[in-house]
Each structure stands twice: as structure tokens, then as C-alpha cells.
Amino acid sequence: MAGLAVRSLVLSHFRSHKTAHLELGPEPVAIFGPNGAGKTNILEAVSLLSPGRGLRRAAAEEMGRRPETIGWKVSAVVALRGQAHEIETWSEAGAARQVRVDGKAATQLSLGSIVRVVWLIPAMDRLWTEGAEGRRRFLDRLVLSFEPKHGEVVLTYDKAMRERNRLLKDQVRDGAWYDALEAQMATAGATVIANREATLTRIADAQRDAATVFPAAHLALSGPDGPEFPQSEAELLTAFRAGRRADLAAGRTLTGPHRADLSAIYADKGIPARDSSTGEQKALLLSLILSNARALATDQGAPPLLLLDEVAAHLDEARRAALYDEICALGAQAWMTGTGADLFAELGSRAQRISVTAADGPGGVD
Predict the structure, then answer these.
(1) For 303-356, what is each residue's pLDDT tens digit?
(2) Which of 212, 237, 282, 299 is most buried, judging by how many CB atoms fall within 10 Å of its CB?
(3) Whether the predicted pLDDT of 365 surpasses 80
(4) With contact defined as beta carbons under 8 Å apart, do 146 and 300 qualify?
(5) What is the pLDDT of residue 2?
(6) Are 159 and 307 spatial neighbours (Cβ–Cβ below 8 Å)?
(7) Rounded CA gap, 294 and 202, in Å?
């Protein structure tokens, strides 16, 4: 399978890196070095080659090298099915992020037609024990990898909901003020829910068909009151109108996809993911990320870029070896970080290695 790979990456005044220039092959990338050397910053730069705010969800002004205030830039040559694309994304001091593809101004959304990226970062280790907002964000990131326009639909829903919440806080009771906003929320909200459900189906199919040592998870979407919740446009519109009295009392919208939650059951044991051990929760997350990648490879004809920050945490030697075998079998360019080169020993000659030895940038590529 002709894969997706970053063939060159140039950072300028990005996070801790004043300058960095990497030339790469299509193989997995193992990045190692001490804590604080800037390993995760490299992964964040790669994540900006796709739509959205990157793996840290940071604002553009937060990504520049401190104490300098001149802005930052990430440039890359990306190969996809034998065709090369030049991608540049940057922010001048205090300005919004900009994108250029093959020398022409472009939108972030357009990046989704070239680069699909999925990631796993240490903050996600708390996914099953934190609040529902983190799980919604995780699910929407999976959805975005399949449907780049999903982010715009979510923004449309959120904007209309914020305007409705403003009316509710101001105790506006005239229904005419709500009708148009609720219609917009119902249309966008139904699409959001349909996209989420379609993604869960794709992940389930990929888990079922996979030959893997990682545990499968039964995933389900629920509302704040359980598995039954309004999903269609008509159901949502009815719920918004019927809920105005309660929403006025609460000062916010109590029904809709913004209140959804993602649940996971460890399939082999039949227990909720939140009740599993730390190691089991990490393995479940890796299983979902790998299933996401397999489904994308089937849909797109090429696996996505995988960004796996501190991936070896909570994995024993055997499971690390199994993870690396699955990544190589998938043919994905996986960018992985760790504190020592020994964490990637099981990859042998199948990976390229980058030693990050100082805050100013990578020490070299083996």
C-alpha cells in the first residue's frame, strides 16, 4: 500500500525549537531524549499538518518560541500515494494561523484531503476517568479523521447554541427569538450525531476484523440521561422547544450533542473501561487508535500518520514489540517519543531514529 509520509519537516521559532530540519523516509520515526528537550513539540508540529488546533489544542499565539514574539512556521513535504505536496502553516506575531498548500493560500479544512492524522498523548490516559467533555473531544477527533468537514459542523452547532444560551441567561421568553437558532442547532446537531455514530461503526468493524494482541472495546454513545436521546433533526428540534422552560431555569441548553458521552466496555472482561487497570486502559486506547488507522487505510487507500507521545508508558516489553509489529504491518509512518533509545529496541532496523539532545532542536537522524 502506498502510504502517507512526511518526507521533510522544517520548524522555525516553533515552541522550543529555534530551527529544526528533518529529512525522512516513510518508515516509523522514533524520537528519544530527556524530558523537556522538545520531543512532543515535534509531534505537535506534525499534527498541524491536519485541520484543527493540533494535539495540544493550543491557540496560534501560544506556539511561538519564547521570549521571542516574531511568530512561527512549520513547513513540510508530504507524500501521498506517490504524489508530493508542500504544506506550510504559520502565524505571525499575534495573528491567526495561516495555511498554504503547493504554493497557494488554503484553508485548514483543505488539509484534511491530504493529511489524515490520529494521535495518542499522555493526557488521554485519563480519558475513561475524567469528565464527558474529554471523551467527546476524543471521539470528535476520531470523526474528524474520517470526515474533515465535521469540525465545521460542530462549530456551527456550538455557535448557535452559545447564542441560544445568551437568550436563556437573559431570561428571554419570546419563542420567536429561539425558533431560528433551534432549527440551526437541530440540523447541525443531527449531522454531528450521525457522524459520531458512523465513526463508532467503522471502529467496531476494524476491531472485529483485526489480528491484534490489544483488547477490543465495545463503544457506545449516550445522552446525559442514558442511551436514549434525541438524534434526528426532528427529535432534536422537538427536544429544544420542549426544554425551553427547564433551560431557562438552568440558564443553558440541557439537551443536545454537546451533552453526549462516550462509553467503553473492555470486551473480553465485560467491565467498563473506567474500572480497568491503568495498563488495560492504555491498551484499550491503543486498540482504538490502531483500529482508527486500519479503518482509514481501508477508506483512503493509505494509513494515516500516527502520533504516539510517550507511547511506551504502561507497556511491557512484549506489548511494545506487538505494537511496533502492528504499526509496521499497517505501513504507517508513526511518530513515537520516549526518553531512551532502548524503548524502541524492538523496532530494530524498521525505524528511523531522531535524538533530541537540546531545547534548540533534534540532535540527528540515524
Answers:
(1) 999 999 999 877 888 889 999 999 999 999 999 999 999 999 999 999 999 999
(2) 282
(3) no
(4) no
(5) 55
(6) no
(7) 10
Q: Rounded distance, CA 335 to CA 311, Å?
A: 10
Question: Which residues does residue 105 pair with via DSSP β-bridges, in sequence order?
Answer: 100
- Nearest CA-CA partner of 196 in 246, 262, 143, 259: 143
* φ and ψ of 137, to 5 deg: -65, -40
Whether residue 361 has pLDDT greater than 90: no
Task: Return d(Cα 132, Cα 129) in angstroms, integer.
Answer: 9
* Cut 0.85: pTM above it: yes
- What pLDDT is attached to residue 301? 87
Q: pLDDT of 52-63, one tens digit each?
A: 899 999 999 999
pLDDT over 90 at 357, yes or no: no
User: Alpha carbon 3 to chain centroid distance?
Assistant: 19
Closest CA to 365 of 2, 42, 16, 98: 42
Average pLDDT, the chain: 92
- pLDDT higher than threshold 60 for residue 64: yes
Give the N- to C-terminal CA distance of the chain in Å, as an integer: 25
Most confident of 35-39, 65-69, 226-230, 244-248: 244-248
